[in-house]
Amino acid sequence: MDIVLVTTVIACLFLVIGAAEPLAARLRLPFSVILAVLGMLIGAGAIFFLRTDLTDALNPVAEAILGLPIRSNVFLYVFLPTLLFQATLGMNLRRMLDDWVPIIVLAVVAVVVATLSVGYALSWASTLPLAACLLIGAIVSTTDPSAVVTIFRSISAPRRLARIIEGESLLNDAAAIALFGLFMGFVMLGLPDPELGEALARFPVLIGGGVVAGWLIARLAVWVMALFSRHELAQISISVALPYLAYIGAEQIIGASGVIAVVAAGLTLNLTGPGRLPPQSWTNLRELWDVLAHWAGSLIFILAALLIPRLLEEVRLEDFLLVGVVILAAIAARAVILFGLLPLLSALRLSPVVERPYRAAILWGGLRGAVTLALALAVTESFRVPDGIQRVVGILATGFTLFTLIVQGTTLRWVIGRLGLDRLSPIDEALSRQVVAVALQTVREDVARTTENYDLNRDTVRSEAKRFGERLDSAVKSAEDSADILDRDRITLGLIALAGHERDMILVRVRERTISARMAEQVLSDADRLIEGARSQGRNGYNRAARRSVAYGKGFRVAVLLNGWIGLSGPLARITADRFELLLSQRLVLRDLGTFIDGRIRRIHGRRVAELLHELLIRRIEMVETALEGLQLQYPGYSEELERRFIRRTALRLEEREYAAMREDGLIGAEVYTALIQTLDARRAVAEERPRLDIAVQRAELVRQFPLFADLDDAVLKRLGRALETRYVNAGEVIFRKDSAARSVFFIASGAVELETAGQTWRLGRGEMFGQMAILMNKARRAEVRAIAPSTLLVLDEARFRRLLNRSSAVQRAVRASAEKRGIAPEDLFAEVDTPDEGRDPAKT
């Protein structure tokens, strides 16, 4: 085939792709639907011109179109890794973990249920072998929710809904293609009735092997990319090779799922890349992958659509019945998951609630697309699959895809409108009117200053001012008519605005490199949680998200256990260092939010709402300061190192800005500017490195700062530091309950706790102890103790505490004071306590 003609056809396809996007926007249809229709028209037109006697002039073009080297391996080995890899890079993984249950249910459980539902329905309605029916079920279970994501974004639907659908699209393809590989093997071997248990038992092996392969290859790639930190093009080139090496390595070398390997590689790069690569390199890498994925997704769709006319050439009347069976079975399976399993999981508190209108939109938005057609094409090309099965698989997969694109795709926006998802809530409508009024008042002031500065014609200014004043009066009247917004709703809207501004401030700080790329994603995730918490549950949701942002996570607890059980301190040191940097970043941003409340929110929602938001902001700052104080107390030197690093990075940013200004003013030439920036980049690479945190030598320093241990010498303090155990607790966590056995005494290194007994409460803070009364009175606990802030506790067992009490007069005084506060006679507690002896070791057993 003439290479020039083929190149011309491919270039024309890119023109079609470029025209499809504005056409889709004008017709208000999903982009993928427009691509599919255009692809089918081009394919049908090529067949028509080859078979008609009207003219032979277009035959070479038609032959070039139909003769394009479109094979299933092109889709699976060239386009699919690109799409999957880019999807993983664009995901906010930390936020998706909040909705991992519905994502897994839709992406894995729904795929298995749809495969079985379609497979057994076809087996009942046709004479096809069960293996072939299950193969068709796996093929048609791959959804393409890009269209519904696009529409949801256009109507400003909650980000959480878009995340669920994006997570489904990523894992859905991986799970479905893994199942496809299983049943394809049964069909090619000619087994009529495969053992379903045997097939599903191999499924985890494919998944696990792909995960391990993708993780290993990605870790190696990140290591190499970090070595080339000053060579951005080299880093991007390695990233382009990564998904293909992962896919081929998993498929051809270890026999695992290549799709799963690509997903694992992308997730690994997503998690580790921002901390190992320069920020600008990471940004440019993701932008390049966005473009590659757009081209790959468009080409895979339009090339697959070119094949549809050929796949439908041998369609028979009974095939329409089977297509109907596939449609009903697939939709029914998806409905069972969305309206049966998900509400059940929500009722059992195993999954966040997904609102009914959104579940309906997800059901109708389950479009099938290019991946379904590519898998069907792989079956039709295999000479090891019987001809009859090839024909039926091609027709059923194509027919079902056309139904979802033409019927569901074209009516999706109408369905969303009927569900009311494209309309603002009454609160948001009232807010929009007030925002317009406030904005126009500000605009009027700015326009007045502008006209004075430019000395414009007074008649013209007066005429335009009159028109603008009429619009302003109308906006103010409309805002006054919506004055029925409750204070509770105003607070909610103010919190949403405050959290949104916080997110914007984080992005500014990241661009300025004040917040490191390592922390950017996590800080942004916390801001997203604040927005969604305020949207769904108002002030309570906002406060819950704020507490979560400073709390100790599950990963931290696992790291503590690993450090305590097997002495593996690396994970704990890394997570603690991340927590340090996260809290410093939060404190930096929070201190700038007060101006936004006074300057913007007060003008829209009034003084009362602004004052309440100030109170909530002050509490958040106090929480961050408390958590940060605990870390600074435990690791004082490390906190100072991080602050020095922040100052150095800020100075480098300002220095770079000065060089750029001099370059723009012509004070220095390009050669000098380049040399200065190269030198600055070398210093920045050193400044970006985070200092190493040594957690092994910190406990003795922490113990030394306790006033209770002030009368102990250095040798005793060191041994006591080794005897004490560190325990971290979140705000709200119960440390011990009433009537529990007394075996330990707790010393508060940071944070605060609340004791409740007999209807009374006491609060204790840094430097105080609790739990000693029950031990000294030989009774069960009479109080329940709960942390009221993220706290670091030092725990000493009963025997060592009694020895400490016998040796330390400061501890004895603290015990006496606590007993008197609770109305307990001190002599009842010290009947068995010896006179302090400084020569004995309280930590010695």
Please give a handful of descriptors for the protein shown.
single chain, 845 residues, mainly alpha, Na+/H+ antiporter like fold, 6 domains, four-stranded antiparallel β-sheet, 8 strands, 74% helix, disordered C terminus, Sodium/proton antiporter (CPA1 family), potassium:proton antiporter activity, sodium:proton antiporter activity, sodium transport
Q: What fraction strand? A: under 5%
The DSSP helix count reads 34
| Class by SSE composition | mainly alpha
| Helix percent band | over 70%
Please tell me the total number of domains.
6
Gross morphology:
globular
Integer average pLDDT: 78
Distance between the termini: 88 Å
Oligomer: single chain
Looking across the biggest beta sheet, what order are the strands in? 1-8-3-6
Topology-level CATH name of the largest domain:
Na+/H+ antiporter like fold
Label the CATH architecture of the largest domain. Answer: Up-down Bundle
How many runs of DSSP E, i.e. beta strands? 8
Major sheet size, sense and barrel closure: 4 strands, antiparallel
Radius of gyration: 33 Å
List low-confidence stretches: 831-845
The CATH class of the largest domain is identified as Mainly Alpha
GO biological process, one term: regulation of intracellular pH
Domain Cyclic nucleotide-binding: 708-822
Membrane topology: Multi-pass membrane protein
InterPro entries: Cation/H_exchanger_CPA1 (IPR018422), Cation/H_exchanger_TM (IPR006153), cNMP-bd_dom (IPR000595), cNMP-bd_dom_sf (IPR018490), RmlC-like_jellyroll (IPR014710)
